[in-house]
Structures are given as C-alpha cells and as structure tokens.
Amino acid sequence: MAGPKRPGHPRHKNSIRTEDSFTKPRDIERHSKLPYFLRMHGSITPRMLVPLGFIGLWATLITCISEFVYELVVSEILLTVLGFVVGLGISFRTSSAYERYVDGRKFWAQLSQTSRDLARHIWIHVDERHDADAELGKADLLGKVTALNLILAFAVSLKHRLRFEPYAQYEDLEQLIAHLSTFAGDAFDPETSEMKPKTSWKRGGEYLGLTFAESNPRKAIKRSKKNLGHLPLEILTYLSAYVNETVKGGQLSSGVQEAMVMANLASLNEVIAGTERVLNTPLPIAYSIAISQITWVYVIMLPFQLWHALRWITIPGTIVGAYIILGIAAIGREIENPFGRDENDLPLDKFCDGLEDELNVMASKKAPRMEDFIRSEDNSIMFDSSYPSLALKSTEDIRAGLRARTNIRAGSQRGTGGHVNGEKADFEIGDIDG
Fold first, then answer.
1. How confident is the model at residue 279 (pLDDT cuts 50, 70, 90)?
2. How far apart are CA 253 and CA 175, in angstroms?
3. Mean pLDDT over the full length of the chain
4. d(Cα 236, Cα 271) in Å, to the nearest integer?
5. C-alpha span between 371 and 24 (Å, rounded)
6. In the chain, what is the greatest distance between 2 CA atoms, to the nearest angstrom?
7. What's the rounded Cα separation, in Å, for the pair 225 and 214?
8. Percentage helix, strand, coil, to 5, in the chain?
9. DSSP assignment, residue 163?
10. Neighbours of 405 (CB within 10 A)
11. Strand, helix or coil at 202?
12. Residues 375, 387: contact at Cβ < 8 Å?
C-alpha cells in the first residue's frame, strides 16, 4: 500500500541516544533500566525548576527574617484547613484530567479497531471482477488499495487536526490525499502557512514550562485566510462515495456486509465527535484559576507555619512540600489534552505508524479463498492427519475421531492417560491414518 516513508534509525538495540531523552511524546517502545525516581524523560521535574527556585528564595527570605529580625509565625491550624482544601482541589483537577486522558485513548482505540474492521471488510468482501474483465479486475484492486490508503489518511488527518495542524501538506499525509479535492489542500499558502522555527530561548522556555514561552496552539488556524474545512470528515466522505460505488456495482454481494461497512463509517464519525469533545471542552477556566490560586497560597504560607518547628530546615522542607503539591497539579495540566506533543501525551505518531503497518500487511496478499487454506496438505486437522487423508474417510469415521479427541483430551486432563471412567477410548489413531 502506498504511503510516505518513515525515517529509520538503525542502531544496536541496547544503545542509548541523547535525542531519545527529548522525544515528545515519549517513545513507549524505548526501555529504560533506571528506577522511576531517577528518570527525567517524562518527569515533571524540568517544569518545576523555576517555581521551586522561586519558592526556595521565598522560604529563605521568610526564614532569615524570622531568625534575625522578627518571628513571622502563623498558627498550624491554617496549614490543616488549607491542606484539606488544597487536597480536594488537586484531587478534582487530577481526576478530571486523567478521565480526559483515558477518554482520548478509548476513542483512538475505537479508531484503530474500526479502521482494521473496515479495511478487512473492503479487502475480503469487495469483489474483484477479474473473471468478467482483466482491466476491470485491476481497477477494482487499485480501488481497494486506494480505500485502504484513505482509511490511513483519515487517522493521520485526525491526528493533525487534534494538534491544530489544519493543512494537508504534511510529510505523512500529503502523498495519501494529493488526489483529493479538499478545503485544507486548497487553503495552503506558503507565505502564511509555514511556521517559523523555534529559537533556542523559546525551546528552553517550553522545556522549563514557562507560560510566556508557549505559543498559541491555534496560531496556524488563525493565520489562515481561507476556509480550512474539516479534513477528516472530507476523507470520510470520499470513503462513503467509494462504498456507494461498490454497492451500485454489485461488488458487495450481501446486505449484511454492506450494513457492517456503513456501521464502520458511522463509528469513525463517532471518533471525530468524541476526540473533538475531549479537545474542546477542557476543565472550566474558573476551576483552573481557583485551584491554581489556592495551591500557590498554600505553598507561600508554608514557611510561616514551618519555621517555628523546623527553623533552618524550613527552606528544604518548603521546597519538598511545594514539589509535591505543585508537581501533581502540573501533571494534571499536562495530561488534560492527551493529543498534544508533551512527553506524557498519547503517541499518536506511533499509533498511525502501527496502523499503516497493519494495513500494509493486509494488502500484501490477495483475499484468501476457502479452498486455499482448508484443503491444504499442511492443514493438520486432528491426530496429525491432514485434510486430504481425512477426506478419504467417511463422515461417521470423522465424527468418531472427533469424539475420540474429546475423550483423550478429557482423560489427559484427569491424569488417566486417555482412559475415561476406567475405559480406554475405543478410537485408535490408526483408524484415521488407515
């Protein structure tokens, strides 16, 4: 099946590359032998460096004033009350974000399952009319391959749409849909569509989680001067048109098969709606602001409440407490949108690559016929007897062999060596082999 080439990186399977530590999203196929508490790739620690630096300076200031000037002490009751509220807020924030993450994974799993099912129905059940006309059969074959390409294009285009990449001129997508007339393809303008490369300062700021360094993810959409359309939906329309032509041409011989194919197309449309719901309905901004403010008030108040008991240990104690509280809140913010390019987001590129490989495998062989694999001499049906040898037996002998296989299996599981209720199975393997 035609498709864009993916760059390979041949290397020893145990080699370690520096760029693997900065891959976004994290490569789930890479194995690390480091214990979890020492891993940095995928950790929230880099994004905590600036907040923890500020908290460390703040705790040092409050500690020095309390030690040398005037004791700045607050009752520990405030710590208890605020801690309860902060715990509820962070729990709500994290559980809501993880629920969205799980929903995103469920919808993509539905996409993978439906894509495989639709591709299988097209490849097996859509007839190739080689017997009627060689050229017509060839056209049917190429049409089926094109349909499989469109299934892959649907997944890839949805991935880009969920990442606010609205055009069709991407390396992994352009070749798949260059023959289609789409709004996204027509809207591409090199002057306004090309994104400038990020500077080292901007990349560093994003790595440290500085909000002022983050670009508007919808920048490409806002800069477009033309209607961008809805590329996944347009591709789905072309797939529907293909199915309609196969039905008109009588290539789908059963109404059940036609119904299954149409159900698959409807399921892909459900995936669009579900993923867009996850993407476009984040936690209400009022909750996010309130939880952030409450969390920071709690962390800022920590040194006032810890100094009386810990003295100079207040500084590292405040930093540790801030890391725990702010870190969990930051994880919730990161996984709230599971379709982005953060380390812990869903590896959509890997999912699309895996789907492409599966469709390539399916299309690499012609649709199998029953006689090709059932009547084969390699088809060992029972007792090491192949189909041709069993075909010479009578139906009664074959059924007797099936009963004997059941009895032998039951006897071996009970430890009777093929004896059932004290009696040896009355069917011998030789009865089959002749």
1. very high
2. 32
3. 83
4. 12
5. 48
6. 104
7. 23
8. 65, 0, 30
9. T
10. 17
11. helix
12. yes
Structure-token match 């004896």, residue found: 419
Q: Write down the pLDDT at residue 213.
A: 66
- Helix or strand run (H / E) with residue 356: helix 348-363
Confidence of residue 84 (pLDDT cuts 50, 70, 90): confident
pTM of the model: 0.83
From the centroid of its chain, how far is CA 207?
23
C-alpha 49 chain-centroid distance: 29
With CA atoms as reference, report the closest residue to 264 among 125, 378, 407, 169: 125
Distance CA 278, CA 107 (A): 10
* DSSP category for residue 199: P
Please identify which residue in the block is written with the tokens 């849909």: 177
Tokens of 428: 């011998």
Measured distance CA(255)–CA(233) in Å, rounded: 25
**Cα(209)–Cα(205) distance, rounded to whole angstroms?**
6
More confident residue, 334 or 361: 361
Dihedral sign (CA 393, 394, 397, 401): positive
Alpha-carbon distances of 290 from 200, 214, 284, rounded to whole Å: 33, 21, 10
Distance CA 331, CA 338 (A): 12
The token duo for 261 is 């194919």
Contact status, residue 159 vs residue 349, Cβ threshold 8 Å? yes
120-162 pLDDT, tens digit each:
999 999 999 888 889 999 999 999 999 999 999 999 999 999 9
Q: What pLDDT sits at residue 313?
A: 92
pLDDT of residue 360: 95
Contact 208, 46 (CB under 8 A): yes
Higher per-residue pLDDT: 427 or 397: 397
